[in-house]
Amino acid sequence: ELAPILTIDGPSGAGKGAVSARCARALGWNVLDSGAVYRSVAAAALERSIAADDVAGLVSLCGDLDLVFEPGPDGILVRLDGRAVDERLRSEEVSVMSSRVAVQPEVRAALLALQRSHRRPPGLVADGRDMGTIVFPDAPIKVFLDASVRERANRRYKQLKDKGENVIFSRLFRDLEERDRRDRERAVAPTVPADDAVVVDSTRLNLDQVVERVLAIVRDRL
Ligand code: C5P
């Protein structure tokens, strides 16, 4: 029997990482941060000067990603080749590059098996854009986590500020809007809720309230 899956999809900055980690800890399940999968490809491409449209170069990077995820108290912890890489993967440069490599269908196809390999007992919380639609279409529990662009930009701004990064709000807002559009309007795996997903709008909810709501959905569907 396949392990149960809770998919949490939505635009960037909606709080998917924090919500996924908290739900995974509460349920005792594994966690998959698919954004970090694309970010890892992007970071490796930047390191090796592989362009966003060099499909063959990108696909060969996808073959040797050694990624391990763990639900931390504030979000999903990511290890690439045994090293903690959260900070590098969250940089603006890697963020922008990740949504550019993610439009390539060959790259997405090359990452399917890797993502599906994270489905292990007792269960999986999978965080991303197309978890409920493409990667785990048979998941029994699907959530689409949304929030207004302004609210998401505010949250990201605070996060980066807290880390001591020098960020300009207007630039971050514009980058987020642009990335949203690219993710929503792309031909493959656009960021849209699955037909059977429950949409949760977190614009006016705090983290505890969102987690509570998602766990109630899980209890309801298991
Ligand atoms: O969720 P996160 O912001 O970390 O994702 C980074 C980028 O990876 C997104 O902008 C999106 O283009 C891409 N992505 C994707 N499919 C996923 C997860 C992320 O295309 N399932």
Rg calculated over all Cα atoms? 16 Å
- CATH fold description: Rossmann fold
Per the principal axes of the C-alpha atoms, what is the gross shape?
globular
Strands of the largest sheet, in order across it?
Answer: 2-6-1-7-8
Q: How many DSSP-defined strands?
A: 8
CATH architecture assignment name: 3-Layer(aba) Sandwich
Strand content: 15-25%
**Would you list the SSEs in sequence order as H and E?**
EHEHHEEEHHHHEHEHHEH
Main sheet attributes: strand count, strand direction, barrel closure: 5 strands, parallel
CATH superfamily: P-loop containing nucleotide triphosphate hydrolases
The helical percent reads 40-55%
Query: Which parts are unreliable, with pLDDT below 50 for 5 consecutive residues or more?
Result: none
Small-molecule binders here are: cytidine-5'-monophosphate
Structure notes:
The chain has 222 residues and is α/β, with parallel strands linked by helices. It has one domain: 3-Layer(aba) Sandwich (Rossmann fold), CATH 3.40.50.300. It is built from eleven helices and eight strands. A hairpin with a 4-residue loop joins strand 3 and strand 4. Helix 9 packs across helix 10. It is globular. Bound molecules: cytidine-5'-monophosphate (C5P). Cytidine-5'-monophosphate binds next to helix 2, helix 5 and helix 10.
